Amino acid sequence: MRKKACQKLGETKKRQEQEETSGPCRKRKSTEFLEYLKYIQDTNKENTEIQLKIREQEIILEKQRLDVQQNMQNQMVEQMKMQEESQKAMFNLFQTFMNKFKQS
């Protein structure tokens, strides 16, 4: 009886040593897996929302950039028109002086 008790005690010690070296070995519950999947889904959803917000901001900035560029082009066109009108006026004035000079 004493020999059997010692054998069982020895087996228990070996089992404990094996568990300590191999780490806690436990079966995962299905709820843990579901929680993990939910965490992944929530994280992906948050990342998608963040990416959408960033994209919206990029679109707004791009629109503002295009508006500024369009305004600059419009101003350049207006300046060119004014310059052309100024040149026409100068040319007409020059012609008027030339005609008066020829008549004199």
How does this structure look, described?
91% of the residues lie in helices and 0% in strands. It has 104 residues and is mainly α. It has a domain at 42-99. The longest helix is centred in the middle third of the chain and has 74 residues, at 30-103. The radius of gyration is 44 Å and the shape is rod-shaped. The chain starts with a helix and ends with a helix. Residues 1-26 are annotated as: Disordered.
Brief summary of the model shown:
The chain has about 100 residues and is mostly helical. It has a domain at about 40-100.
Which helices and strands, and how do they pair?
Elements (H helix, E strand, L loop, with lengths): L1 H21 L7 H74 L1
Order of helices and strands: HH
What would the average pLDDT be, to the nearest integer?
A: 85
**Distance between termini?**
149 Å
Helix content: over 70%
> pLDDT below 50 for ≥5 consecutive residues: which ranges?
none
Q: How many strand segments?
A: 0
Largest sheet: none
Q: How would you classify the helix and strand content by structural class?
A: mainly alpha
Provide the gyration radius in Å.
44 Å
Number of helices: 2
The gross shape turns out to be rod-shaped
Tell me the fraction of residues in β-strands, as a range.
Answer: under 5%
Region (Disordered): 1-26
